[in-house]
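Summary for the steering committee. One of the milestones for this cycle was to obtain a three-dimensional model of the protein with protoporphyrin IX containing FE bound, which we needed before selecting residues for the alanine scan. The sequence and ligand used are listed below.
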Amino acid sequence: MLKCTLTGYPTVLMPRKSVQQIALMRDSSSTYGWTSILLHWITAIVVIALWFIGKSIFSVEPGAVDARRSLHVSVAAAAWLVILLRVVWRFREGHPRVRGQSLRIHRIAKAAHYAMLMALLVMLLSGPLMVWADGGNIDIFGLLSIPGPFGPSEALRSLAWYLHSKAAVVLFVLVLLHIGGALKHLMFHSDDTIVRMIWPGKVETS
Ligand code: HEM
Ligand code: HEM
């Protein structure tokens, strides 16, 4: 039976329009769908904001440190599931071919993307561990408070803090290279690298 290459569903069971609509939500071997595009831009904005709020925690006067830390934890915890979904979605969908590049550059770009996702995962796990190992609850804008599943532990707090701050540096460097690479494509290459992360391209259905 003929199956849609994107959804895996038998195409005879689905009207052509709905095959195309599902295809627009998912990635193909050469394009990003709406799910990837929305997840990319929503999490890009949140992660850049979190990075700067995180780095500013200790740059304010001592009395304001707690407020800055609370803001960081609230925003991070509120976005936690969306960022996790973004990481899981990429591993589930695979990676579309990188545009107009040799196989070597394609592999480097892909590896950099996966390294960013791994750094994000480390931050998502180490952040909550740090709060709970400190004996606190994860408080989301005063609306929801999530207690830790274990008691305070100085060793765990230090390990989680170490991982969180090192992953933050790795993420920062990779994001700078990533944005530089995207701008290079925009200015010096005549390909659709940026466009396909803004609007789904033409999709191929069987
Ligand atoms: C993926 C998103 C995240 C990013 C980009 C991020 C970024 C940062 C950065 C840059 C710092 C400062 C580290 C340093 O000064 O070396 C920080 C600190 C911190 N982050 Fe995150 N973070 C994220 C997720 C989370 C999550 C999910 C939580 C907890 C729910 C969290 C809790 C904290 C706390 C409590 C601190 C302060 C550490 C301390 O008091 O010593 N972060 N974060
Ligand atoms: C202004 C900032 C940004 C721009 C202009 C930008 C641009 C792009 C473009 C054009 C692509 C498609 C590349 C391709 O497959 O050929 C892409 C993919 C990707 N970007 Fe960004 N990006 C930005 C911020 C970020 C940030 C902050 C992160 C990390 C949190 C990030 C992580 C990724 C990842 C992991 C991919 C691979 C596809 C995916 O999983 O979504 N980007 N970006």
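Key point for the committee: Residues 154-188 form the longest helix (35 residues).
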